[in-house]
Amino acid sequence: MVICLCNGMSDGDVRTAASNGASRPKEVYEGCGCRAQCGTCTATILSILREMPEDKARG
């Protein structure tokens, strides 16, 4: 599911970035090779990060 229209970032992209060590939205954007634009997706990114098991979200 697309969660960031500005960057075309999906929930899968967020989960992949978290699995690679991202633990904050800024790190997710960096991991996806983009940056925050309007910021509307930040709350959704935080929700996904919080749902991930700690061992997956921290690498």
Keywords:
mainly alpha; 8% strand; 59 residues
Structure description:
By secondary structure, the chain is mainly alpha-helical. Helix content is 51%, strand content 8%. It has 4 helices and 2 strands; from the N terminus they run ββαααα. A two-stranded antiparallel sheet has the order 1-2. Strand 1 (2-4) and strand 2 form a beta hairpin. The longest helix is centred in the C-terminal third of the chain and has 10 residues, at 42-51. The protein starts with a strand and ends with a helix. The mean pLDDT is 91.
Strand content: 5-15%
The total strand number stands at: 2
What is the oligomer described by this structure? single chain
End-to-end gap: 23 Å
- Shape, please? globular
The SSE order reads EEHHHH
Q: Identify low-pLDDT runs.
A: none
* Range of helix content: 40-55%
* Physical arrangement of strands within the biggest beta sheet: 1-2
Average pLDDT for all residues: 91
How many helix segments? 4
Secondary-structure map with pairings?
Blueprint: E1 2-4, E2 9-10, H1 11-19, H2 25-31, H3 42-51, H4 54-57
Antiparallel strand pairs: 1-2
Helix pairs in contact: 1-2
In short, what is this structure?
The chain is mainly alpha-helical. The protein has helices at 11-19, 25-31, 42-51, 54-57; strands spanning 2-4, 9-10. Helix content is 51%, strand content 8%.
